[in-house]
What does this fold into?
Amino acid sequence: MKNILKIVKVSRPLYKILAIITLLIVASALLELTTPVVSKSIVDEIVAQESGSQQTLTFLIALMFALNFIGIVVSGISDRLGDHFAGLQRKLLTEKFYNKVLFLPQTYFDSEMSGKIVNQLSRGISTIQNFTNAATNFILPSFLQSIFTVLILARYSLPIAGFVFMLFPIYLALSYYSSLRWGREEVKKNKLEDRLRGRIQEVVGNIKIVKGFLTETKEYNFVSKRLAKVNEIYAGQSQTYHLIDFARNLSLVIILLGINVVVFYQTFEGAITIGEMVLIIQLVIQARRPLFAMSFILTQLQNAESGSKEFFEILELPGSEMTDKKTNYKKLTNHSLEFRNVSFSYKDSGKVLTDVSFTIPAKRKVALVGHSGSGKTTITNLILKLYEPRRGNIYIGGKSYKNLEFSQVRQNIALVFQENELFSTSVRENVAYGTPASDKEIIAALKAANALGFAEKLPKGIDTEIGERGVKLSGGQKQRIQIARAILKNAPILILDEATSSLDAKSEMEVQGALEKLMQDKLVIIIAHRFSTLQNVDHVIVIDNGKITQSGTPKELARQKGAYSDLLKYQIEGNKKLLEGFELS
It folds into this structure.
């Protein structure tokens, strides 16, 4: 039940409204029990025709109507407040989860599928809300009604009160066992469904690859098999539930038979009046409601316990990037970068970087060159403070990364990625992402990035929505929007991660023109395989197997034996073969 306690704890900001709802529920539970009590008085008044009073009878009928009316009003207000509470709780839980996820370290996302994270959020909120709805609509009312019913019955017949009281532990024990078995299987189902939702989202996001490789049937079978496994688990849950439900109902029938025998014999012998008999029968009928609800209640409890498990596990993860959102750090004035004996390895993998040391002065253009997997992108991730070095340290402007918040580092860095990292919103919003700006500033950035021409020709100009990951734009257009975003940020350090590798020659030339404007007066780090991108850099650092093997100007390294000259030679030979093929050499 530890997650149930966490649900109560996480809802602490909503305690005031919850207290009001609780008071209304108590009032509603008491009002529901007034009907049998008043009914008893009405029956006794009718039976006692000679001593009875028509005026009293009329008053009792009017009182019953008034109490029922008040009960409806109280119940309506309680339900409305319950809906309001549910909305506030949904907002609170989503904000807590989303805020936590946004500030989790990059290492968490390296091993988790985005679809799985979204599914955990959805299931967590759904099960918690179902639990709180059950708590306000069933658990608390049922608990109160059970207590009040037994107390009133004890006033008229202790044996009958004892029989009714016996029902609750029997029903509760059987229901608890049922929900416990259900909950164990629910955890297995949740793991399967997380994997399923994650895979479905991956497939939808990579639908071109799926269609291109004709793997539609394979992906369908993957999902179908796991859905069959989910149904198999559910079938076992259902069978257990219905067997225990049969035992519950049988115990109810036996005990109710005993209650009826006692009530009828006591009435026949005159130990209780007909009115009291009516009261007892109505109370016993009302006692069945919390009993029947108990199975549902315990199922909701167990679902909340298992369904919110991953939700709270994420909330309890250490958030290495939590910071004071109100703090505005000034940009650094000295923008040199230094790696000092930096070593790094990813979780469950060997070393990626070993004793890497280099210094890049401000306003210098430096290229990181090396074979795929040599560690170039890892260096940029460390510069962005997405990861922490296992050993060594990094300095920006002479200040140690260990003494700087991640936001202090990243506000000094602009990025242009190989992948087109755009949102499905408008051109305007993508350019101004993270940098509030006026229309004039956005248009100036688009113009500097050679992107204004095509952006203005879109159906709604710069307010045109570009689709998920910019699907409505060409590769060159998407890259130029990224460049416009970097221009608008105007950070003193610029990282270009294979920014032109996926472009055709014409698009690359257009993007290169925009990049030249972007790189002016900045410390630039370029990761590229195309040597056309590197011809204007000041310095080249060659990475091989996680170590710096060469360092110097492009001309110096071209004359030295090593990875740089090898890569250059492969590219030159490839270009020669291309020219010979077209008889242009």
Q: What stands out?
A: The two ends are 77 Å apart (CA to CA). The chain has 19 helices and ten strands. The first helix runs from residue 2 to 10.
